[in-house]
Amino acid sequence: MIYLLVVMPLVLAQKQCLLGRDSGEFCDKPGGQRFFFDLRTKKCQPFYYKGCGGNQNRFDTSDNCMAICSNTKGSTATAIEAVCKSGAYAAGATTLPEPLSCEECPKGYECEDNLCCPTKEYLCNLPYDAGRFGDQGSHRPRYFYAKSYHNCMLFTYYGRDGNANNFETYNECKAMCMS
C-alpha cells in the first residue's frame, strides 16, 4: 500500500512530462513564459503560454519543471503513430510512448476505437503546424485543412509535435474537413 502511495504520484507526474508542448488558447487570463519538458533533449524549454487550455506539461519555472520531470524515461523514437478513422493522429500518438487512453481525452477529442480522436469541429479549425524534427530527423509530405481557402493544402511535416490538422493524403483531409 505504501508503494502505491509513493510510486503512483511519480508515474502520473512523469506522464505529464511526456506530453508535447501546448501553447493553449488566448482568453481573458494572462499568458506568459512557461516551461515544458522536452523529451528529446531531456531539458525544460521555455515557451509562450496563451493563458487557457493546453496540457499538464506546463510549469511556471524551469526549476519546478526539472524537479518533476528530470527522471522521466521515454523516447520519441518509440512513439506509436496511432491513426484515427479520419486519418488524423490520435492524441499523444506523435509525442508519447503510447497514445492517450479514452479516459484522458483532451478538449476537442472524443473516444473512437480506444483512441482519443479529434472532432471535425476542433481539427478543421486548427492552424497549420509543421512540427519539428524528431530523433530520426525525417520529414514527409502531409496535408492540412486551410480554413481561409476552404481547401486542403500540401505541407512538410517534420515528424514530431505539430497538431491534429495533419493528414497522410489529400482525400483523407477532404473527407474530414470538406464534407
Automatic annotation (TrEMBL):
<feature type="domain" description="BPTI/Kunitz inhibitor">
    <location>
        <begin position="124"/>
        <end position="177"/>
    </location>
</feature>
<dbReference type="InterPro" id="IPR020901">
    <property type="entry name" value="Prtase_inh_Kunz-CS"/>
</dbReference>
<dbReference type="InterPro" id="IPR053014">
    <property type="entry name" value="Cuticle_assoc_divergent"/>
</dbReference>
<dbReference type="InterPro" id="IPR002223">
    <property type="entry name" value="Kunitz_BPTI"/>
</dbReference>
<feature type="domain" description="BPTI/Kunitz inhibitor">
    <location>
        <begin position="17"/>
        <end position="69"/>
    </location>
</feature>
<dbReference type="InterPro" id="IPR006150">
    <property type="entry name" value="Cys_repeat_1"/>
</dbReference>
<dbReference type="Pfam" id="PF00014">
    <property type="entry name" value="Kunitz_BPTI"/>
</dbReference>
<dbReference type="InterPro" id="IPR036880">
    <property type="entry name" value="Kunitz_BPTI_sf"/>
</dbReference>
<protein>
    <recommendedName>
        <fullName>BPTI/Kunitz inhibitor domain-containing protein</fullName>
    </recommendedName>
</protein>
<dbReference type="GO" id="GO:0004867">
    <property type="term" value="F:serine-type endopeptidase inhibitor activity"/>
</dbReference>
